Amino acid sequence: MSGTITISDWRAVLAEAHTALRNAVAGVGAEDQHLRTPCEQWSVAQVIQHATGDQMAFTSAITGGPGPSENPFTPSGQIDGEPQAILNPALDASAEAWATVEDDAPAVANPLPQGPMPAWLAGGACALDAAVHAWDIAMATGQPSPLTPELARPLMVVATNIVEPLRAYGAYAPALDTDSGADDVAVLLRYLGRPTTWTR
User: Fold this and answer.
1) In-domain check, residue 200
2) CATH code of 52's domain
3) How many separate domains does the chain show?
4) What's the half-sphere exposure (Cβ side, CA atoms, 13 Å) at 36?
5) Do 117 and 10 form a contact (C-beta atoms < 8 A)?
């Protein structure tokens, strides 16, 4: 595996992941919300609700403020109004919360069962969640993939540090086999249980 994530670049990775999710949701039309996604048994609306709730959960862990009003793992699939209206405030609050975290903080509170983590890993976990759900939404709605090799490489470092214990909670599907010639994006997606051949 090439590349690494360092203390100095986790903020850039998080910002790019947030932008990817924001842009993917901006491309969702009212008629798209019911479409199926690579998240098995979840619609586009449910993935948006889940991703929004996850960002709120990270924010709450850092600030001590309120978390999501509904369980991100049982999203209703009913969004009143524009999806951006629920997502964008959550992303803004997440970015503001992470801005209060020191670059090299050794133990950052987060909603994951592993407990406090170094800033680069906790921030990377938040970025991983945003980026992979941006991909889910983009694929479901016929948008270009928001994942680039430059983003996938550091996210894979994060994934290999946090994902295995989370599979037991249903947060990620079992890893899929990866061909030896797969690029960094495919390696990440298949490690997270996403079939890279998924089609609408």
Assistant:
1) no
2) 1.20.120.450
3) 1
4) 6
5) no
